[in-house]
Design goal:
Belongs to the ABC transporter superfamily. Pfam families: ABC_tran. This protein is of the alpha/beta class. The protein has ten helices and 14 strands. The strands form three sheets. The protein has a six-stranded mixed beta sheet with strand order 6-7-8-3-9-10, sandwiched between helices. Strands 2-1-4-5 form a four-stranded antiparallel beta sheet.
Length: 291
């Protein structure tokens, strides 16, 4: 079942670009990555989905319901963590979370305490006394509190230390086991590679690619390190060399061509060592961005 279904979604701000003709869908129970640098259109997409801003054209559904007409109904089952969190400074964490829970039909005070303990969050502190990282924890508890069917996370780990990031990822995987669908927007590619099933790459408001992490990193590209016996310059003339760097007697390639053709050329050269690896998501991402 498609939990999120986006068709030709466009949002423009006067003459400024927002997002242009986005079309993709997210399946139930999936952790779906949404990647691009700051300013690529990730937050605009999310804010349009949540009906905080209206689309210029195109349409989208969440749980099969229209994002504009049925937005109140949709929000009952969505947990949202914005990239920047702003709260009433003079409220205590516990009061703020109880107030927030009042907007939903489901609220379990034990769940609130359990999440706060897991995240090492003091419920009795005032918001104004919290660090940026602890404010982020409040946002995480708030997003998970009502047992949402869809979690929308915008740059969720900024401000969290590495240990807390691991706890947060554990929480996400537990939610996924319960059947929750997760829309994970980030520019930190290692996180997306670790967590997500599929990923959409967005560039300057337009969709570049939607693919499984496995296909992105395995099928299309290889990261190749060739060590030659001497430091004299060696050259390879092949289709499919996306990127080449030479450092002394070592050459590194990002290669999408025919492996036999590469090996045939290397056979005639004084090769000392050869290492063929799957590229990281970061290398794949840069390949799409530099095109």
């Amino acid at each position: 079942m498609k939990i999120v279904d986006i068709k030709n979604l466009t949002k423009t701000y006067n003459k400024n670009r927002g997002i242009i003709n986005l079309t993709f869908s997210i399946e139930e129970g999936e952790i779906f990555g949404f990647i691009g640098p700051n300013g690529a259109g990730k937050s605009t997409t999310i804010r349009t989905l949540l009906n905080f801003i209206y689309p210029t054209s195109g349409s989208a559904t969440v749980f099969g319901k229209d994002i504009v007409k049925d937005s109140k109904e949709i929000r009952q089952n969505v947990g949202y963590l914005p990239s920047e969190i702003h709260y009433y400074d003079d409220m205590r964490v516990i009061d703020l979370l109880k107030y927030s829970a009042g907007f939903y039909k489901k609220f379990n005070p034990n769940r609130m305490k359990e999440l706060a303990e897991r995240l090492d969050l003091d419920l009795h502190k005032k918001i104004e006394d919290l660090s940026f990282g602890n404010r982020k924890k409040v946002g995480i508890v708030q997003a998970l509190l009502h047992g949402p069917k869809l979690l929308i996370l915008d740059e969720p780990t900024s401000g969290l230390d590495p240990l807390m990031q691991n706890t947060f990822f554990e929480l996400l995987l537990e939610e996924r086991k319960k059947g929750t669908t997760i829309f994970f927007s980030s520019h930190i590619l290692s996180e997306v590679q670790k967590l997500c099933d599929r990923v959409a790459i967005i560039k300057e408001g337009e969709l570049v690619k939607v693919e499984t992490i496995e296909n992105l990193t395995k099928k299309n590209l290889k990261y190749i390190t060739i060590t030659f016996e001497q430091t004299e310059p060696m050259d390879l003339k092949l289709d499919g060399i996306v990127k080449k760097e030479v450092n002394g007697n070592e050459m590194t390639l990002l290669y999408s061509g025919d492996m036999k053709a590469l090996l045939n050329q290397l056979n005639a050269l004084p090769v000392k060592d050869l290492l063929i690896q799957e590229p990281t998501l970061e290398e794949v991402f840069m390949h799409y961005y530099e095109k």
